[in-house]
Specification:
The chain has eight helices and seven strands; from the N terminus they run H-H-H-E-H-E-H-E-E-H-E-H-H-E-E. By secondary structure, the protein is of the alpha/beta class. It has a single domain, classed as 3-Layer(aba) Sandwich (Rossmann fold), CATH 3.40.50.150. A seven-stranded mixed beta sheet has the order 3-2-1-4-5-7-6, with helices on both faces.
Amino acid sequence: MSAAEAAVAWRALVTAASDPYQRAGRFAWHFARGKLRWDPVFGHLLARGLIAPRSRVLDIGCGQGLLASLLAAAAKAARQGRWPSGWAEAPVDVRVSGIELLARDVDRARQALGARIDIVCADMRTAEFAPVDTVVILDVLHYVSIAEQDAVLARVRAALPIGGRLVLRIGDAASRRGFAASSGVDRIVTLLRGQGFGRHAGRTLAAWNERLAELGFAVASEPMHGGTPFANVLLVATVERAARSPGPTP
């Protein structure tokens, strides 16, 4: 399949994944279409095969369930023979559970997806993490303190087996302009949602890598900002051993 044909296939996936949100209202539908189309992380997850077939996935901070909807659309496309040949194996028979703090997003997910997502309205700092194969956390951890981030990551590690995977997008605080730009946008969004400005706790890419290594992960990273001025980095962390005692928090 050529690059042009893959682009057509991706647009079809975006449409298929966002259409269910019409049941949840115009805002939910337009948000789904825009987020899936313009955020590079979703296409990257599929093309690189970061969500394995027949895996159990926990999406922490899942919002209105876009990842679950996209994975369902991808599995359907693959079964119908519409999967780009240059992509990794399609994520068929994936079971997705989600944790989301905002009740409005949980309601939208349930209206749109029904039984296709097992979602709970809860705080990631206290919610139970059941055993899974893959954990996805996109642009969420900076909303809590460094100590709370570490506690969440430790519980994620406990939920994963050897060979399990954490897919984590973070902002690299070492890139001061990019991190400031993304933090500014986040503050505006949280203010519009009625959550106030809040405080963001960032750390450098090196510090993220060090903490994950202490927990027994082998980490690969790559930029994931899609041409925006942000400092987003995608970390793909695979469990390779037991955690070791952490050093001082950076």
